[in-house]
Design goal:
The complex is a heterodimer of chains A (241) and B (111).
Chain A (H helix, E strand, L loop, with lengths): L5 H32 L4 H11 L2 H12 L4 H12 L1 H12 L6 H7 L5 H8 L7 H25 L5 H8 L1 H16 L1 H19 L8 H19 L11
Chain B lengths: L4 H22 L7 H19 L10 H16 L4 H19 L3 H6 L1
Helix pairs in contact in B: 3-4
Classes of the chains: A mainly alpha (241), B mainly alpha (111).
């Protein structure tokens, strides 16, 4: 099945990257506006987006920079906001073609965003890193340029359009977990449980004061671990995680 | 003390890259432990679901358009539509719903 060439994988990834890029463009424009409000130059904001590719992390970063925070504080908060990528990368490590080289893995580490991860997980069978590279290159073009345009143009853009484009990112998440939920009843139950717990965590006193990034990790670990203990996956799942 | 913006950016980029790259480079072979395997199998679906809801409800200009997008996206994904179709349809639903909820002035003028 996985006899595609690197080039074919890359092109396949690029195609998947197109809608991600459009959604990114809209979302990162808001990020550019936030950077501008924090007195960060538009091209510095774009550079941040090019190097980091993480909305919550960048938001927190811009806020801390505007407060003239200590470097260590920035590193700590960034680690908290982005810790979920630790889980995503661990999960991807099991999905990757085992022959993926060390160098390819180093490059792949740069590309793990929520949406790129979602698209990579949705690939049938083992994953070639070239798929992910292709998706990432197209997507980050939208992300970086969106940040720049947002910082330059600010609030001129119609919120009508931004709201509509921004929701596309959630559409991508949904198109990853819903088809799996359809074929696997346990995943279906987990999705419903995740919705309920996530909603509750945002409303409950004390819990809601925890940063969004940390809440995502805690919920992911708790729910996935409980599911793994109660419903261990049967081995015929040749998908490799 | 005055801080340098480029050192700030380097700090952010460095720690974020480390978080992303360490599991990919340290876990080089298939994990045999059944619980860990199962855990990593469930992680993507759980984490994407947690990130979707309720966050999607506040991603647009109105909770009604967001709910409409959520429902349409779930139905289309359930019917087996591709990622691209689902994402674009969700955007279109928000755009149309908000046109109805908040008609632009040139339309209200005609009516």
């Amino acid at each position: 099945m996985t006899t595609r060439t690197k080039r074919q994988w890359f092109l396949m990834g690029m195609r998947v990257g197109i809608p991600i890029s459009a959604g990114y463009f809209a979302v990162s424009m808001a990020l550019g506006i936030a950077a501008k409000n924090a007195n960060i130059a538009s091209w510095q904001a774009a550079l941040t987006s090019l190097l980091i590719n993480a909305s919550a992390g960048e938001h927190i970063g811009f806020t801390l920079i505007s407060l003239n925070a200590a470097y260590l504080e920035v590193i700590l908060m960034e680690a908290i906001a982005n810790a979920r990528y630790l889980l995503m990368s661990a999960s991807l490590s099991q999905k990757l073609e085992p022959r993926t080289t060390f160098g390819e893995r180093l490059l792949l580490g740069f590309t793990v965003t929520d949406e790129i991860f979602g698209a990579s997980v949705a690939v049938n069978g083992r994953l070639s890193p070239y798929f992910t590279y292709g998706a990432f290159i197209v997507a980050t073009a939208g992300w970086t340029s969106g940040t720049f345009v947002g910082a330059v143009l600010g609030d001129i853009l119609p919120t009508r359009l931004l709201g509509a484009l921004g929701v596309g990112l959630y559409g991508m998440f949904i198109s990853v977990f819903v088809p799996k939920a359809r074929e696997d009843k346990i995943v279906a139950a987990l999705v419903v449980i995740s919705f309920i717990f996530s909603f509750a965590a945002e409303k409950l006193p004390y819990v809601r004061d925890i940063s969004g990034g940390v809440r995502i990790i805690i919920l992911t670990v708790l729910i996935s671990l409980a599911a793994a203990l109660i419903f261990p996956v049967k081995e015929e799942n040749g998908d490799g995680a | 003390m005055e801080h340098n913006i480029y050192i700030y950016i380097a700090c952010m980029a460095g720690i974020t890259y480390l978080i992303r790259v360490l599991p990919l480079t340290l876990i080089r072979r298939d994990i045999k432990n059944k619980t860990v395997r199962s855990f990593l199998f469930y992680v993507p679906y759980v984490t994407l679901a947690v990130m979707t809801f309720p966050a999607i409800l506040t991603a647009t200009n109105s909770m009604i358009s967001a709910l409409a997008a959520l429902v349409v996206a779930i139905v289309l994904a359930f019917l087996g539509k591709k990622l691209f179709t689902v994402a674009v349809s969700a955007c279109a639903v928000v755009f149309i719903t908000e046109l109805i909820l908040y008609p632009p002035e040139f339309i209200t003028n005609i009516l």
